[in-house]
Each structure stands twice: as C-alpha cells, then as structure tokens.
Request: fold
Amino acid sequence: MDRTQGQTEQHEQPTGGSAPAAPTAPATPVTPAAAGPARVVSLTAGGFALTVNPVDGSEIEPLRPGTEPARPAKRDAAARAARTATARPPVLPGPAAPARPLPAREEERERLVRLLGRGRSVRLTGPSGSGRSALLDAVADRCAGLAPDGVVRLSGYGQQHPGELLHALYATVYEAERERPGRVELLARVREIGAVVLLDDLEMGGTALDELMRATPECAYLLAATPDTRAPSDDSHIEEVFLGGLGKADCLELLEAGVGRPLTDEEIAWAGDLCFASEGLPLRFVQAAALLRQRDELNHNDEDDEEEEPGVFEERPRDAVHVPLPTLAEGAAPAELLASRVSESARAALRIACALGGELPHHAHLPALVGDTHADTAVAELLACGLLTPVGTRYRLAAGVARQLEEVGYGDTASEEARTAARHYAWWTGHASVVPERVAAEADAVLAALAGADVVAAVLLARTAAPAFAGSLHWEAWERVLRSGAEAARKAGEVAEQAYFHHELGVLALCEERLDRARAELETSIGLRGALADKRGTVAGRRALALVVDRETAGAAASPPLRLEAPAPAALAAAPEAVTVATPAAPAEPAAPRVAPSTASTPSAVSAPAAPAFRAASEASTTRVPPVAPPVPVSAEAVTRMTPVVPVTARSETPATLSEVFEDAFPLDPKPAPPTAPRPAAAPAPAPGRRRLVLLAGAGALAVVALGTVVSLALSSSDSAPPAQDPVVTSSPTVTAPDTTAATSGNDPAPEPPVSAPPAETPEPGQSAAPTPGRSPARTPSRRPSSTPPNSAPPTAVSPTPTGAQPTPTVTETVTPSPSATTTQTGTTTPAGSPVAGD
Reply:
C-alpha cells in the first residue's frame, strides 16, 4: 500500500490485526503521536490555515501575514499527461485484456472534433450503453493540440453542484498541492484556463450548467449525458449531438470482433433479432459476444480439446454437452446467464457490488472482502463479460445489471455484505500507510458502505474516513460522510462522536463562507462537549466560533448605513431631476455657532406688547440654521446626496437652507401663489414650519404668565391664625379703594367691586363663618399651607407686596354693625372679592 508522504518506515506500524513490524533502533525517540495511526494534514483553505486532526477535531485559524500561498503555476504537458493517467481506471492484474472494438462512429467523431476546434461546446446525448465513453476517448486523441492547456478529463457522476467540478478543473491544470482556494480566487484562476474539457456522465443542467460555463469562458466542453438528464438553458448556446444505436452491419462486425471468429448463419440470424430488440446498443453486443465465448467453452469446440482425452481430475464431464444459443430474452437481459458462468470469486464480487449500490471496490480490496487470495482477477473477468463499465477512476455495474441480479437473489445478503465492507473500510481508511488520495479514489464505495452499515459500523467508518476526505480536498465526500456519521452517532447514543462530527461540519462551513451554518454547527458541538466536560474540544470549538464572529463583524462593517447629506447650492440649480450620488463622507467637525436672527425675521403673528419671556422664547425658536457646506472627500464611507425635483413654487433666488429646499419640493399649498415682489436677501421669509413653531412658543409663554399670576395671588393670601382678642366694632364703615392705575396684562381678569362679607349660611371655601352671639369665633382649617409664620398679634390689615409682573390691589374693609347686625368684622379680600380670612 501507499505510504504517508514524508513519513519514514520506522514510524509506520500496521493495525487491524496485522503482525507488528520488527523493532528498529531509531536515532531519536519516537513519540506516541508519531507512532500512532493518526494523520495530521495541514491545508490552506481560502484565507484560513486548516489543520486536520483526526483525534480532537480540525483546527482553523487565519493565515498569518507572509504565509499566503504564491500564485500557482500551470502544469506542463508531461505533468498534465501524468495527471490524466491517474484519473483513468486502474490497470487490472493478470494478462492485458484485449481492447474493446470501437463502434463505427467516424461521422460523429469528425463532427465533434470540428465543433470543438471552433471553440463551441457540445452536449453528446445517448442512452446508457450507447458507447459515449468510448467516443470521448477517440475525440480526446484528436483534440490533444487544440487548446493551450490540452485536454482535461472529468467525471460528473454524482456531481450536482458546479463548485466541485471547478475545483477538480483547478487541481488538474494548476500545481496547487494542499491548497483549496476561496470562491473569488477560484473563479479568477479558472477564468484563465483554456482547455478542451471532456465531462463524462454529466448529471446537471439548467442554471447549474450555465454557471459552470460562465466561470470558464475560455474552455470548450464536450458533455456526455443521458436523455433523462436535465437539458441546458436556452441561452447556453450548446450544440446538441444525439448518439443512437448501430446498424445491423455494424452490430455484426462488433459481435465478430468480440467473439474472435466468423459467425455462423444461425448466430447471424440471432444477432439480427438482437439488434432489433436492443435498438443497436453496443453494450448489448459486447455482452452477446461474452455469451458466445462462454458457449464455445462449454461446447468444447476448440480443436485442442478434441484431440486430448479428458483427465480424471478435470471438472468437465467426458461426454460433451451441446449448449444452444441463448434465447432472445436472455440476449436482451444477459446478466443472470453471464453471472452463472463466471468464477465463484466473480459472483462474490457481484454480491458486494449489489450491496454497495452498484459500486465495485478496488480490486486490491476484493481478497479481504471475498476471502480469496486470487479474487483480484475477478474484476477483469467481469469487465470482459460486459457486466462492468469504467466510471472515472473506478468500475461499477453496467446499466441494468444491478436490477437483473437483484431479481435472481444477489441482493438477499446486502446488509451483511455492506456491514463487512464498512468494517473493512474502517480499518483501511484509518491505517497510517494509506494516503488521503487513495481514500478519495474509493469515495463512492466508502459512502455506499456507510449508507448500508449498522449504526456502530457507520460511526466507526465515518470517524476514520472523514479526516482522509478532508486531507484529499474531496470536500463534497467529506460533508456527506460527516452528516451520515452525525446521524449514526445520534442513533447510537455516542455523544462524543456526535460532537466531533458537528465540529467538523462547522469548520467546513466556515471554510466555505457559510457563516450561519458554521455558527449553528459549532454551537451544537460546544454544547455537547460542555456536557461531556471536554475542555480541549470546547476550546477548539470556541476558537472556531470566534472566527465566525469576526467574519460576521467584518461583513457588517463592509456595508455601512447611508447618511443623508444636504445638497450643494450649485447642484440644486443645475440638476433638473432627482439623482442619487454616492460621495465620501466629511469628517466630524465641531458644530458652527448659531447666528441670531434679525428683527425682520420675527414672525408678524406675534403682537407688539408681548412679555419679555415670550420674546426670548420666540427668538430662541426662530434661530437661523446656517447652510451645510459641501463635504470634503476624505472617507470612503458612502453618503447619499439628494437633489430635489424641479421646484413647483417659483423662487427668484437659490435656496440656502435645507428647510427652504424641502419647501420648494413639497409645498404646503399646492396652488400657485400670486406673484410678489422679490424679498431682500438679508431677511428671507420664514418657512411655514418655523412660523408654526413661533406661534406655539408664544402660546406657551402666555400660559406661563397666567400660571405665574395665579401662583402669586395664592402666595399673597393669608392663612394666619385668627386673632385672640374680641372683634373690634366701629360705628362707621371705612373702605379703601384699590389702586387701578397699575399696569396690567391683557390676559388678567377685570377686578370686581368690593363687597361686604358674605352671609354666614353660604361660606366660601377658605373663609371662616361669621361668629354667632354667645359663641367664640372658630377658624375653619385651610387646605393651603400658610406661607407666613403665625403672628401672636392680630393684624388689622394685610398688604401683600405686588410683583413686577402683576400688581395686586389691597382692600381694607371696616364694617360697623348695622341696625340688624350685632358684630363687627374685619377682613382682607382679593381682587376677585373672595375673603381669605375673617373673624
């Protein structure tokens, strides 16, 4: 088997039950990590350095400065030939098998070469078994010198996304070992490739195929597909060439070349009927030639066998048995008859292929899977019978063979065969001597064994195969095996293995810039490892998650939000339409001082005798905003500059403020205003929005003045305690008239005439009731707290000090008892006429 690159023989130890190697005396002590089967591979994936660690999980970190890979160089002709040889199926052991005769396809071959020479892409459509792969081989020989990068052979079997095909094309043309470029770099590199690309077994079409061809405009494609494959789009400009069956003469020629002798009349008639039943498919006549060869061996028609007497230990009977020609049904579906006449090792290989979904393992694995040391020769035997067909770097069952074999019982032991194959591949993929490229060549068989194995074998196989797929840069198989392993680990209850698979899925998604998927997978892995108290795995997961956060932050900073900038006056006058211009933002500067408005800018709606507070509020609300200067292009941040539509209101001057610009674009009154005289430039008319603000400010000032008046009146009232002595009784009333010459505001209520004390039966709030004879006066408690300290001496009159805003008149009233009154009452009243306190 292959040895690990850069690993010496003394570090190589077989596993899986093999006998240990003879001990050697190394010059330096061997560490357990070097002696174990673990393979650590370092890769470059986009802008990351990836270290594939099969033990604890892959570690990812950004590339350090100076460690970026250099621009890869293209391979020369010799390197391309060697690369193409490795992409072909392996050479089988034993004598060289005779080459299959090429069907008569001269016309189709010349047409394909002519179209490819013109740089056109062609889609070769034909049913399975029509000889598409053989025709591609013939075209490849004729197109070797057409393109500067030669001919590239790719396999599209199982490929539904163009990304993997682009990576395969990149690895074939460029010398980039252990490097998987990012999407941007990949598209830049494959755009420079000029080659004739032969893509066999194509399984995609439509937009996916268009994406592949747009990414490589300098390549001419020859796409081989079946009729049930999705057709390309109408705008792809791909030529269509349909490959049908062969004629009767060509079928007889192909049959004679396969048998190696002239056909009899009976065989010619049988071949004619088979040509009509199979529609001239070349695969059917390759299988028919195998049936005739087996019939000749059974009938002992060879002259050498007739001259020699059968031995005692020979298996064939002494009496020859005549084997008739196969029936027409057996010729149309010959898998069962052909399988019954091959060796036991070949039949065992067919059972394994049926269990793996048609995939046949490499011939080096058949001795271990079958239990026969000579089972590797079974592949050549099955290939000669037409039961196998080459697909990329491997062999698989030909079209329709798997179904025919399963009908006769070859699929009854599929679960057991798949479990055996899974355990074998788990040992083989984890062996230190197997390089990742060998594992990638067996990717389809490994994945098929993983799908058919039990959960325990599936977890073991996925755990050992995933690092090998990652190291071989076959990341589509890496993702598939990780998902299958995570599901098998969940069913088996293996929490640690499940955490490992989710961690690897997160790292893979991070390398492919799928940040949402990477975050979800890494958070799941961190949670599972936290439950297991796996500190080392948790730290590795958190490091990868930190990279996801950094990528998300960098992506958010790359597209800052747009800001609205005031338009320049010159742009307003020149541009007749609204346009959006991305200009660099100006740096942050200190705010300019505000300019006080002139007297002419004061709104006319405010009356002249306004209060000083109201004037101050109105002036503060009508402060002019200076025009915004054009920005200085010092930053790359995008700023949106809005230029208004054609003004709908006529203005003789260029607007200088943002509010005036909006007034022109969106007037409050859509009707045209009558023409007015041009206003002076020093005092432009205020905008309607500003006038409304001034009115609101004036109304607020008036409300403040009224509230101050009420508060001052309340403070001027007296809530002092009642006098201790008896009320003073005089004979003549004396009334002091209030001073009405004080300046009053227009919003103050008119003073009421002074009145005498209200009747005792209807006391006002805050007023004491009149005392009755024979009872001392009682004071009614006031709800308003007293603003003056109580005085022991009873005041005869209260004269509150008038405020500057609103003078308050003082009324002193002395009441003498009338003929019907028996007491004298002294009190102080407010201008409204309501007494505050009385005796």
The CA atoms of residues 304 and 310 lie 11 Å apart. The first strand starts at residue 41 and ends at 45.
